[in-house]
Amino acid sequence: MLENIGNFITTTADFVCGYPLFFLLIGGGLYLFISSGFVSIRRLPYSIAELRKKGSSDDSQKGEISSVQALVSVVAATVGLGNIAGVAIALYIGGPGSIFWMWISAIVGMATKYHEGVLSIMYRGIDENGKHKGGPMYIIERAFGRKWRPLAMFFAFAGLFGTMCIINANQLTEATVATFTTTTGIENSTFLASIGSITGLNNLEAFKLLIGLGMAAIVSLVVIGGITRIANVATIVVPAMVTGYFLMVLYIIITHITQVPEVFANIFVEAFNFKAGLGAFFGVAIVGARRAALVNDAGVGTASIMHGTSKNNQPVREGLIAMLGPSLDSGFVCTLTAIALLLCGDFTGNGDVKGLEVAMKAFGDAIPAGQYMLMVIAFFFAISSMFSYSFYGSECFGYLFGNRRAKYYNYFFIASLVVFSVVPLNAAVSVCDLFYALMAFPTMFTLIVLSGKVRDASKKYFGSK
């Protein structure tokens, strides 16, 4: 019975998270891109200018963090293992051409994030303590009225499960074990055996438990401090880890400089390769666009939760900063991964789709101890995403059950990291994937319906420039 339920959940999640989610995010994002007058291209200079402003957030405004801190915290959530493993999978399935369509998807995602940023300020809520709150649940209720509260609650309920980091916790643990240990060393460890005698776990499971406890301890030090501490830590960690990753890829580029022109040529040529037929062309496009859509979270609603807390009363300004997110994760970081893998990656094999394994081997072959350096970067990618996702979940919990009780969700979130690092739960992963996808449906509906409000605010803002 339980097995049948698990299979049903997995099948449903695979379907909803497949083409329905893809066409919702890409199709809806394309509509927002066109209806906004190609905002992610035409207004990109304004976004960069806003990002470079010093002291641009007004401390007299109510809010928790600056607009830039909100952006960095959103990027902390979206820059994760998917930026490494997801790109490897896209290349494995769709070849170099999929990267071009990943870039196109990022541009579309930027338009979606622009709308999320604008609406997060335009319709943000206020809790019982007078603090500003953001997210689709507040946008829906304040824009459409109380009669739409069930839809807002639907998003918040989906957010409780969709923002859990089951995959990150489990895969980070598995990757750490594979990279830094040997099977013989684990089996012969008397220390792990002593832990196993207490917990009833074998040595490998005991080692995973220790990793999970360490992971939970790091996350708890940050998330218990609330959004201000999350933003402060993200402001330090995100630039550092992206810079470190960039330097690793730069080393690969320099040591393979003669092959770089061919790599970019293959990306553009293969993106429009009709030799294999029109079906193959669309297949490559869908693979790249779908991977980018799943990486940058555009249209899922999480970005508006974070940006709604910023010290800013100008909706369009928040949208301009918010739309830089996909350019950083789906654009810059994913491009770094693609270049490194196209220069050094080995995509031959027995037909199995490989992600992180391909990346680890490529960096290990290209850089001395590169696999260990990449593992450290991947650790920070994964752990930083946990900081922001815990906040998303707690905000959804607070909307449903009161913000004073939101702290209890954080305790649950931290404990779940330990559990999911030890126990691989396929059905639980599918549940989270399913609810993550369900977050997108009310979010995209809201963005599309309110796109006229965004256009009006944009015309007024840019008309004064």
Secondary structure blueprint with pairings:
Layout: H1 2-16, H2 19-35, H3 39-42, H4 44-52, H5 67-78, H6 82-94, H7 97-122, E1 125-126, E2 132-133, H8 136-144, H9 149-162, H10 166-180, H11 183-187, H12 190-199, H13 203-223, H14 226-255, H15 260-271, H16 278-296, H17 302-307, H18 315-322, H19 324-344, H20 356-366, H21 370-401, H22 406-422, H23 426-449, H24 451-463
Antiparallel strand pairs: 1-2
Helix pairs in contact: 1-23, 2-7, 2-23, 4-18, 5-14, 5-19, 5-21, 6-16, 6-19, 6-20, 7-15, 7-16, 7-18, 7-19, 8-9, 9-21, 9-23, 10-13, 10-21, 10-22, 12-13, 13-21, 13-22, 14-19, 14-21, 16-19, 19-20, 20-21, 21-22
Short key terms for the protein model shown above:
78% helix, 465 residues, 24 helices, two-stranded antiparallel sheet, mainly alpha, 1% strand
Helix amount: over 70%
* Radius of gyration, in angstroms, nearest whole number: 22 Å
* Average of the residue pLDDT scores: 82
Low-pLDDT runs of 5+ residues are: 274-282
Tell me about the biggest sheet? 2 strands, antiparallel
Order of helices and strands: HHHHHHHEEHHHHHHHHHHHHHHHHH
Distance between the termini: 63 Å
Q: Which of globular, elongated, flat, extended, rod-shaped describes the shape?
A: globular
Structural class: mainly alpha
What's the tally of helices? 24
Query: How many strand elements?
Result: 2
Main sheet strand line-up: 1-2
Portion of residues in beta strands equals under 5%
